[in-house]
Amino acid sequence: MMKTAAPSWVMAGSVYENCVFLEGKVDEVALLFFESESCLAYDESDLPRELAELDLTYHVHLPLDLPWDDADEAARIVLGLMDKVRFLGVRQAVLHPPVTTGKNAFSVEATQQLLTVVTRAWCSHGFDCNDLLIENIEGADLIDLAPVIEDLGLGVCIDIGHIIAYGHDALLDRTDIFDRLRMVHINAPADIGTAKGRSKHVSLVHLDEAGRGVARKVLQACGEDCTLVYELFNWKHIETTIPVVEELLLMEGQ
Asked: Which of 50, 93, 161, 162 could make an S-S bridge to 189, C-beta 3.0–4.6 Å?
């Protein structure tokens, strides 16, 4: 049965307060380690031992500001953060890859090399390559990276909102990528079709019919070992999204 998850920020409060609130509502919490230095500085007051006593499992969302001009440093940060949550048994993490199109883009070849360095460090640290999940983001729809994802044995996290906001429609036909799907980020982009606010995450109730078609296709591609992450940072938005997801999962393919 697919696991459900929510971010470690769905209301004002500490990570622990959010996790206490989420216990019994979802199976897993995505620990949001969005900023490298501040999250490396976390201590027991930020990640108390009591987290391990909750009826929850955990995975990590790795920083958005990894220094991709230095793959060894990026790997050091990734593994340093994973060490911080070793006491929670965390084995899985979501990684934003270097961008391959747009401003400050890396070449596909350079990106492949960067991911290879980080993946080798990840596996040398005792983790399964399939538990390092590469997410489609603005500037990286994963299509160019499909060969290295397969060669390195990496997993994939598909973000529904990013497909819609950034025009990743071609991704939907890539069975080679969907065959490696381990996690789905469930959200709709705000202000669909405009630049302003397009990367903000809102409830799926805001999707139009085309957006619902995208969400249905992604959700129905999930296997039993896939985690559905309601990547919304307000519990009320998650509450309104859950019935939409349940409906889309039951719809017949079109």
From this structure: 161
Q: Is the separation of the CB atoms in 166 and 142 below 8 Å?
A: no
- The tokens for 146 are 């499909």
pLDDT in tens, 138-192: 999 999 999 999 999 999 999 999 999 999 999 999 999 999 999 999 999 986 5
Each domain of the chain, given as residue ranges in start order, spans: 3-250
Superfamily of domain 3-250 in the CATH hierarchy: Divalent-metal-dependent TIM barrel enzymes (3.20.20.150)
Please tell me the predicted confidence (pLDDT) of residue 195.
Answer: 43
3-state secondary structure the chain: CCEEEEECCCCCCCHHHHHHHHECCECEEEEECCCHHHHHCCCCCCCCHHHHHCCCEEEEECCCCCCCCCHHHHHHHHHHHHHHCHHHCCCCEEECCCCCCCCCCCCHHHHHHHHHHHHHHHHHCCCCHHHEEEECECCECCCCCHHHHHHHCCEEEEEHHHHHHHCCHHHHHCHHHHCCEEEEEECEECCCCCCCCCCCEECHHHCCHHHHHHHHHHHHCCCCCCEEEECCCCHHHHHHHHHHHHHHHHCCCC
What does the chain come to in residues?
A: 254
The pLDDT tens digits of the residues spanning 10-60 come to 999 999 999 999 999 999 999 999 999 999 999 999 999 999 999 999 999
- Encoded tokens for 128: 């399964």
| Tens digit of each residue's pLDDT (9 = 90 or more) over 112-150 | 999 999 999 999 999 999 999 999 999 999 999 999 999
